Amino acid sequence: MSISVSAQYYSPLTTNPSIIDEPALYKFTYNVNDFELQNFGHEESRDGAETHGEYRVALPDGRTKIVTYEVIGDSGFVAGVKYEGEILPFTPPQPAPYEPSPPPPAVYQPLPNPLPPPAPKPAPLYYKPIPPPIQAPVYYKPLPPPTPTPKSNPPRKTYGPVRFNPFG
After folding, report:
1. Are strands 78-84 and 25-33 parallel, antiparallel or unpaired?
2. Whose CA is closest to 44, among 36, 32, 55, 56?
3. How many domains does the chain have?
4. Is 166 within a domain?
5. Of 19, 34, 59, 160, which one is least surrounded by beta carbons within 10 A?
6. Region entry Disordered: which residue ranges (predicted)?
7. Is residue 18 part of a domain?
8. Per-residue pLDDT tens for 99-136?
9. pTM
10. The domain containing residue 42 runs over which residues?
């Protein structure tokens, strides 16, 4: 795969705003040539209101499409298209023949189960172990059901209409 790039941009090194308003002036080129037939490139130059350029791309049918364009003033892009090379006959891709691969070699080899070593004899006890605590039985007596106690609410006072006199 090869890639080539070149660019030229003409810019005065100044902060003067009157010079910044100068017309654009540049030129660039790039090309990409890939091993998978992805070949394309672009070239453009501009001087003020005039722009000229060309780009090319390799098509799947074997031809190369070349588009040249120009912009002069307010004309918009004016393009010309041409093709180079001949159309190659289409050949559909053929599937690769199927060949089953051999099974992978067995990696796991089970080991024979060795007998575990005998458990060591328990050490002699030099003290008398504490017996587990003996719990006395606990008897639960359910509570009697609650007895409702009637509550008497005092009668409410009834109030009549309220008269408001702002003068007392």
Report:
1. unpaired
2. 55
3. 1
4. no
5. 160
6. 89-126, 138-168
7. yes
8. 898 988 888 777 788 888 899 998 887 888 788 888 88
9. 0.46
10. 2-84
